[in-house]
């Protein structure tokens, strides 16, 4: 008999009603997602235009507190010799395009919330294909597949910018260049995942990459893998082991998403702190510890959300409102792993100062 611990579960989520009330309304939840994307686009566009308006070419971008212009500059737009920003017009265009995109997304979100069907199962045409039930692994995999394809396409667009459409900024030579020969060697590329850089173990892992050929080659692999994985999930249901290993309800799915975002924040923190190729000092400065600290804080926040929603998912899975001792042990193990990551991060930050 499996030991269990009871938790009071009143299902009173009034304080989360903005999200919780849409859990079982696939059409309106889609509208909320589209509206959120519109808000993100609006923020990106408006802040870019604000930075363009206040940009001073005589002061380094990092000394002006700029956030988005450095990101556009490292992609090769508006940059001249020695990393000097010589043309802000591309930033103005990009900011304006984001504002236009935010208006389109906002209109789409409002349509799905106020005019569209509450549940996509009641929709006409192809939209009905995207209705889901939280306990239907096949349909959730179908939707995951489409997300993966979009992520893969974004990765390959970045590759296209570096290889075909103007190149990107290379801090090792202080100029923009075309990456004409990306490294596609799987031993080199996937070695970074296991902490191997040029065949030698490096505690920085992927953040130890030291040339743009490897960065762009890695994005080729990521793009192809995401698109292939997306096609698989669209056409195939999850394997039996996945059906047994994962919990299928709203809280659980959100917890998995938060875990993925936390991993991205953690990875980003290392690149910010230690990799001058991905975050050129010309645009971001040499001491980026505070920037990295924000990434670590976001990582911790997302991990906390992951654990909370994972536990809520387990409680929801059991109608009696109980959670097994096995799940409690897994939670404790996860907490120790998080603590270990924090300790290792602090050690690395001390050993490899920016």
Please give the order of strands in the largest beta sheet.
1-6
Number of strands: 6
For this entry, what is the oligomeric state of its chains? Answer: single chain
Question: For the residues shown, what is the average pLDDT?
Answer: 88
Structure, explained:
- With 354 residues, the protein is mainly alpha-helical.
- The chain contains twelve helices and six strands.
- Strands 1-6 form a two-stranded antiparallel sheet. Strands 2-3 form a two-stranded antiparallel ribbon. It has a two-stranded antiparallel ribbon with strand order 4-5.
- The termini are far apart.
- The relative contact order is 0.11.
- The N terminus is likely disordered.
Give a brief rundown of this model.
By secondary structure, the protein is mainly α. The chain has helices at residues 17-20, 26-54, 68-74, 89-115, 137-163, 186-191, 212-235, 240-245, 250-274, 281-284, 289-317, 325-351; strands at 4-6, 168-170, 175-177, 196-197, 200-201, 322-324. It contains twelve helices and six strands.
List keywords for this structure.
354 residues, mainly alpha, two-stranded antiparallel ribbon, 12 helices, 6 strands
How is the secondary structure organized here?
Blueprint (H helix, E strand, L loop, with lengths): L3 E3 L10 H4 L5 H29 L13 H7 L14 H27 L21 H27 L4 E3 L4 E3 L8 H6 L4 E2 L2 E2 L10 H24 L4 H6 L4 H25 L6 H4 L4 H29 L4 E3 H27 L3
Antiparallel strand pairs: 1-6, 2-3, 4-5
Helix pairs in contact: 2-4, 5-7, 9-11, 11-12
């Amino acid at each position: 008999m499996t030991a269990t611990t009871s938790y009071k579960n009143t299902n009173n989520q009034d304080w989360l009603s903005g999200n919780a009330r849409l859990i079982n309304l696939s059409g309106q939840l889609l509208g909320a997602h589209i509206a959120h994307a519109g808000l993100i686009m609006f923020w990106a566009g408006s802040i870019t235009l604000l930075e363009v308006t206040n940009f001073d070419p005589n002061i380094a971008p990092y000394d002006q507190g700029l956030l988005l212009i450095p990101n556009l500059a490292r992609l090769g737009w508006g940059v001249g010799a020695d990393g000097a920003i010589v043309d802000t017009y591309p930033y103005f265009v990009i900011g304006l395009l984001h504002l236009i995109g935010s208006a389109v997304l906002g209109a789409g979100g409002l349509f799905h919330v106020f005019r569209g069907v509450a549940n996509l199962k009641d929709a006409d045409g192809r939209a009905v294909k995207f209705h889901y039930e939280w306990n239907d692994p096949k349909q959730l995999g179908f939707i995951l597949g489409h997300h993966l394809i979009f992520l893969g396409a974004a990765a390959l667009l970045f590759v296209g910018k570096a290889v075909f459409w103007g190149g990107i900024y290379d801090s090792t030579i202080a100029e923009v260049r075309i990456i004409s020969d990306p490294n596609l060697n799987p031993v080199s590329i996937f070695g970074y995942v296991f902490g191997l850089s040029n065949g030698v173990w490096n505690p920085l892992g992927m953040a130890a990459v030291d040339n743009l050929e490897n960065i762009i080659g890695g994005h080729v692999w990521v793009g192809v893998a995401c698109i292939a994985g997306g096609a698989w999930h669209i056409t195939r249901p999850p394997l039996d082991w996945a059906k047994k290993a994962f919990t299928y309800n709203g809280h659980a799915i959100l917890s998995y998403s938060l875990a993925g975002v936390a991993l991205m924040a953690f990875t980003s923190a290392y690149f910010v702190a230690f990799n001058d190729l991905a975050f050129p000092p010309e645009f971001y400065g040499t001491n980026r510890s505070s920037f990295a600290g924000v990434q670590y804080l976001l990582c911790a926040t997302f991990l906390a959300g992951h654990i909370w929603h994972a536990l809520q998912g387990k409680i929801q899975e059991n109608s009696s409102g109980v959670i097994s001792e096995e799940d409690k042990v897994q939670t404790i193990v996860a907490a120790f792993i998080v603590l270990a990551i924090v300790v290792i991060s602090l050690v690395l930050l001390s050993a490899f100062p920016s």
